[in-house]
Amino acid sequence: MTALRTVLVVDDDAESRRLAVRLLEEIGWRAVEASDGRAAVELAGRVPLDLVLLDLRLPGEVDGLRAASLMRQNPALYGVPIIAVSASPYKDFRHRAFAAGCTAFLSKPINLKELQHQVELLTFPRGGP
Amino acid sequence: MPKTGPAKKVTSSVEERLLRVLVVEDNPADAELVLRELKKAGFACSADKVETREEFLNRLDTASYDLILADYNLRGWTATDALDYLQQQGKDIPFVLVTGTLGDEAAVECIKQGAADYVLKDRLARLPAAVDRALREKAQRDEAAQLQDRILRAKKEWELTFDSVADPVVLLDDEGHIQRANRAAAALLGVEPRQLIGRLCYETLHGREDPLPTCPHQLIRKTGEVARGDVYESHLGKVFDTSVTPLRDPSGGLSGCIYVMHDVTERKRAEQALRQSEEKFAKAFRSSPDAITLATVGEGRYVEVNPGFLRLSGYRREEVIGHTVFELNLWADPAGRAGLIEQVRQQGAVSNREIAFQTKTGEVRTGLLSAELIEFDGEPCLLAITRDITERRQAEEQVRQLNQELEQRVAERTAQLQTANEALARANQMKSDFLADMSHELRTPLNSILGFSELLLERATGLTPKQRDDLGIVHRKGQHLLALVNDLLDLSQIESGQVLLDWNLIPVQDTLACILDAFAVRLREKNLKHSLEVTPPDLRIHADPRRLEEILTNLIANAIRFTQRGGIAVRARAVNQHVEFSVEDTGIGIRAEDQARVFDKFFQAHHSAETSGIGTGLGLAIAKRLVELHGGRLWLESTPGTGSRFFFALPRSQPLPAPGSPPGERP
Questions:
Q1: What is the pLDDT of residue B37?
Q2: Shortest CB distance from A19 goes to which of B436, B455, B493?
Q3: B461 in contact with chain A, both atoms CB, cutoff 8 A
Q4: What is the ipTM of this complex?
């Protein structure tokens, strides 16, 4: 058995965080959480991560897009997939997420099967649970 | 010595030169006798003597003679032969017969043939008188011939002169018949001179059937004096200075006249043109609204002014003429005139110089002055035309002010619009923010509802079947709510003008097949047939692929929802510059009274269990708006109980680009 892999779940809505954490733990991930962009970037700089699930709408100066680009500036996070999550009505938002450095895009409400599928797809090269 | 008067008279002329005599005599003694008799009578002669005919002819051919004295009977020929020869040669030489005897008949015959006289040899004393008379007659004949010659020459000269005169000249008799006409007259009328002879002057010259009352010819018939006047010949279109000189018979009565026509048409035309030009000038001078003045250069003394000047200046004519510009104080700036005159002197003329002038009442007005120097009665004068442009200047000033006001108002209005635009942009931004906020506020709780219920359904153990069903309801209703939220947000975006189409060239056949594929499971579940037909197969269209998919998905989902048996047919075909899509079903159909309302928001034609699946009530409204956003239209045909067919037609090419861009978006 290898060590548990770590996912950073970023969302200002506590229930949404809890849902994501519950699902990811079920499929064998260790989760760390942040409720705003600044905390997320700080945490990502500190804790070795294998995946980031990032809601793009975050309170404070650092919103999700800004947080994604800040993380991408950290060489330690260079190869870490970032899955963007957005409840925006603007479908073009997906492009802006990719431009900021995100690897995948899910719209909110999150379809759990789709999340699981994306996670497995993005982290497959390192071996599944 | 001359014995007689007449003889002496003749010899006086002969004395000056020798009388050359040809003596035709076959008896030399007789010839000597005859010559002696002549010399005795005082004739200075040089004589040649011939006997034969040959000698005679020879002498005549080589020399000239004043007198021939001939015997009648010669050896082999007679004096008659000699006379014949002279006559034949046309030689007029006095010929006197000197003969022994001559019968009366022969004598008469010789006289007839041109002999001047005859003298019998036994009466030679009579010879000098006969010769004298013959010479005198010859001299008279010569004189007559010369006279005749002079007359003929004079006649010829006169005719030549008559015909050389460039002006038409005709001679008329007292009744007006043409007696003579020169070449110019004939040429004027286009005939030969002889064709004019005998014709009436008014018929030919005036082209009339009766005499022309104004013709000078009529005048001289009354006065008998030379008459002259201009006559317009209407048939020729010319004016002639016509002079008529009376011709009188020896008793002093009028026998006719000489009628001379001098063409003055060109001169008359020039005179008329000049007169008209002068009239026009005078008229322009009188009626011009501009002030026209003529004043001496030095003193500025007015010589002539027009009514326009009087009107403009307010002066009466007598207050101006003879007075100077300075007395009238016309120039608002008196030094201005000196400058003007200097300029006119240098440049010859001045045009459209703006000046200020003062009227009688002291009002200062603005004028445009043009002037030039002319000589009038030997004195340099300034001819000036001034146009009053006071009103024009005022109007221009008004226009300028109006323009300024207008510009100000435009600027104000622009500023207002700017403000309004900014407000609109702010409002749009707010609307956009509101939509984003609403989207999050609605979806975030749904995330938990859907997520946790799904998590429970998937992973929870120990749930009773009843609990599982109840949880299923939560999940399904949550999904319905999500669909509703999605449609509502979609519609809000479209209606607030925030949707920009992403135009692409789309292959219709592939796109429709792909969309239909997504419905394969549901079609199979309901056991419905489906078909796709694209004409022509390679049909392509400019549209936003995602929005086109949304439209078709809405229509196809609707068709499947309301169809229990049969199937659906999707078609696309090119119609002129449009592509007409249609989705046909064999479902329950839509009642006529509902057909217009199916595109309203939340309108549901059927709430019964006949329908399967749950609609949001917004699908058709969204489809209709998206079609319209593409510049197309959406409509339907339906028969209740049989089925419905929804059509929409989109332009094949992108319509004119919509201006503006959507406001910035927030996540």
A1: 87
A2: B455
A3: no
A4: 0.84
State how many domains chain A has.
Answer: 1
Q: Parallel, antiparallel, or unpaired for β B67-70 and B95-99?
A: parallel
pLDDT at B5: 42
| pLDDT at residue A80 in the model | 92
- Note whether A26 contacts B459, CB cutoff 8 Å: yes
| Residue A122 falls inside a structural domain | no
Strand partners, A105: A84
pTM of the model: 0.46
**A115 lies in a domain?**
no
- Evaluate whether residue A33 is within a structural domain: yes
**Chains A & B: contacts with CB separation below 8 Å:** 69
DSSP summary character for residue B331: B
Q: What are the angstrom distances between the C-alpha of B490 and each of B345, B439, B602?
A: 87, 10, 14
Q: Which residues of A touch B546 (CB under 8 A)?
A: 91
**Using beta carbons and an 8 Å cutoff, which residues of A are at the interface with B?**
13, 15-16, 19, 22-23, 26, 56-57, 63-65, 86-93, 108-112
Q: Do β-strands B95-99 and B349-358 pair in parallel, antiparallel, or remain unpaired?
A: unpaired
| B444 lies within 8 A of chain A by CB | yes
Vertex B191: Cα angle to B190 and B193 (nearest 5):
130
Residue B605 has pLDDT above 70, yes or no: no
pLDDT averaged over every residue in chain B: 86
In a domain, A83, yes or no: yes
CA B560, B562, B567, B573: dihedral to nearest 10 degrees? -70
Judged against a pLDDT cut of 80, whether residue A105 lies above it is answered with yes
Residue A68: give its domain's CATH number.
3.40.50.2300
Full 3-state SS string of B89-110: HCCCCCEEEEECCCCHHHHHHH
Nearest one of B121, B100, B111 to B37, comparing CA atoms: B121
Three-state DSSP at B50 gives: strand
Domain extent, residue A65, equals 5-110
Instruction: Point out the least confidently predicted range of A64-78, B37-51, B62-76, B649-663.
Output: B649-663
